[in-house]
Design a protein that fits this description.
The protein is mainly alpha-helical and about 120 residues long. The chain has 2 helices and 2 strands; from the N terminus they run H-E-E-H.
Length: about 120
Amino acid sequence: MSHKHKTVRLDGDALALAQDIQTLCANAHERREALQREYQLRMEALQEETNRELKTLWPQLHLAAGLPVQEVGEWQLDASYLEHGVAFVSKCLHEEAQGVSLGDLLQSMTSHSRH
């Protein structure tokens, strides 16, 4: 089966409309790129703001929890039960224990207590 095309040369009003379509598409592309650049800048600003706020809140959390402030960054927050009024911070104490989350530990404790 052969694939055929029909081509029509545009002139007059049709050529003017083709130029309008091309200009509209080019403008839309430029606006889309400008929006993407603006979005990227806003996302970076949001990340910087969040990081500044976290640098303030983490030491406060350590003080409130009675943890050494110099260990900020070593502890991870588990807020998955926060809707029930419970949250945890955890820290890996042994290299061989890395990768075991507090949630895994709690689950293993509850599963052992059921047997």
